[in-house]
Q: What sequence folds into this?
């Protein structure tokens, strides 16, 4: 399984999107990291002198910023991870193959609402290609590219099993009425 899984499959449409469990997992990981950095910030506030005393002893602007950032660095990282958790949970994209309109729709969602939509008619699709990607630590991944007019229009990333991504490619080509090569 890759980043996209089949969310809905009927005779008229195939919808691919990230499973909610995957989005939940990343949101929980980012929330845990935010909690860790907030706990470190609390530890710093308890072990160092009060921030007012430290700032009053600063001699120039550079020293003032150094003291201020040393007190607030973990808070800023924690807020960053909170934002990452919110985006991991509430920002995703999905692809829909619609046989009635003979169109592929790409929708991007932001917290449950459609943020952007793009469409591509079936007759403008040049090919759907499987590409092998060597990732970090020599792990092999397979991406599925939807190519139109010589450019990549959509990418379905992160599949580890070559047979699964090739089966998905065949299914999409068959759904579109294209010959399977």
A:
């Amino acid at each position: 399984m890759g980043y996209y899984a089949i969310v809905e499959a009927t005779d008229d449409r195939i919808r691919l999107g990230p499973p909610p469990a995957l989005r939940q997992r990343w949101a929980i990981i980012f929330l845990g990291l935010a909690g860790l950095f907030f706990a470190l910030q609390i530890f710093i506030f308890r072990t160092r002198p009060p921030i007012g005393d430290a700032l009053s002893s600063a001699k120039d602007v550079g020293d003032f910023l150094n003291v201020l950032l040393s007190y607030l660095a973990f808070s800023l990282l924690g807020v960053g991870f909170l934002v990452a958790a919110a985006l991991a949970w509430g920002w995703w994209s999905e692809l829909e193959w619609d046989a009635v309109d003979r169109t592929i729709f790409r929708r991007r969602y932001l917290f449950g609402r459609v943020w952007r939509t793009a469409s591509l008619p079936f007759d403008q699709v040049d090919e759907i290609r499987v590409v092998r990607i060597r990732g970090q630590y020599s792990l092999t991944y397979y991406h599925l590219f939807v190519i139109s007019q010589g450019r990549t229009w959509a990418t379905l990333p992160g599949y580890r099993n070559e047979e699964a991504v090739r089966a998905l490619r065949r299914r999409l080509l068959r759904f579109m009425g294209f010959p399977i090569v």
Q: What stands out?
A: The longest helix spans residues 61-90. The chain has a mean pLDDT of 85. Helices lie at 20-47, 51-56, 61-90, 162-176.
